[in-house]
Amino acid sequence: MTGAIARKDTAVAIAAQPYPFMLRREAAALLIIDMQRDFLEPGGFGEMLGNDVSQLRRTIEPNQKLLAAWRTAGLMAMHTREGHRPDLADLPPAKKERGKGAMTIGDRGPMGRILVRGEPGHDIISELAPRDGEPVIDKPGKGAFFATDLHAILQNSGVSQLVVTGVTTEVCVHTTVREANDRGYECLVLDDCVGSYFPDFHATALKMIAAQGGIFGWVSSSDKVIEAITE
Length: 231
Ligand code: TIU
Prior knowledge:
- The chain is of the alpha/beta class and 231 residues long.
- The protein has one domain (30-215): Isochorismatase-like (Rossmann fold, 3-Layer(aba) Sandwich).
- Helix content is 35%, strand content 20%.
- Strands 7-4-3-8-9-10 form a six-stranded parallel sheet, with helices on both faces. A two-stranded antiparallel ribbon has the order 1-2. Strands 5-6 form a two-stranded antiparallel sheet.
- A hairpin with a 6-residue loop joins strand 1 and strand 2 (21-23).
- Helix 5 runs parallel beside helix 10 and helix 8 packs parallel to helix 9 (199-214).
- The relative contact order is 0.20.
- The structure holds tricarbonodiimidic diamide.
- Tricarbonodiimidic diamide binds next to helix 8.
């Protein structure tokens, strides 16, 4: 047996909470959640809602380094975007009205219509732009499995493990991890690559994932994953 085959078939242990995550490269995908201009850039929807976008922007550099190492290792990377059809036919009235802010989904902001597909603000930030061949999942909800083809793509690709990063920790990342967990995926969430407008929610959300013996999955950090996948 050659070294390459032996490596492919061998799980690699990544230090994590509540115990090491056994990464199987051939069964793993990196899932980067909603790193969109509307959430991360000054002037976007997130800031318009009164949020401090710097809490999210600290995740950009670690995600860039992780994505570069992941691509170099030849592993599968996927991206998601939260947003709606231009006619807003898939936008539940309850979601549009929630918050009662001056601006809401579908309204015209500084980066185009807020969270509408095809608009500049809906796009993924340039630092983490998807490459050709990397699936981009457009989702109308918080979870990446609801009303999308994500599960089919993962099943057809033989994926059973997800390394999950992106924003925000307690909203779209958490919802997606919960959905994935119920569908049988093992999820590893990286604390430096996920972020929230609310640091206390971020910290608690991560604790919730790893509590009770890993009720929703594992928590680690990007340096440990990069070390594990780098030759
Ligand atoms: N992607 C995601 O988390 N969507 C949100 O609306 N998050 C908030 O924290 N608002």
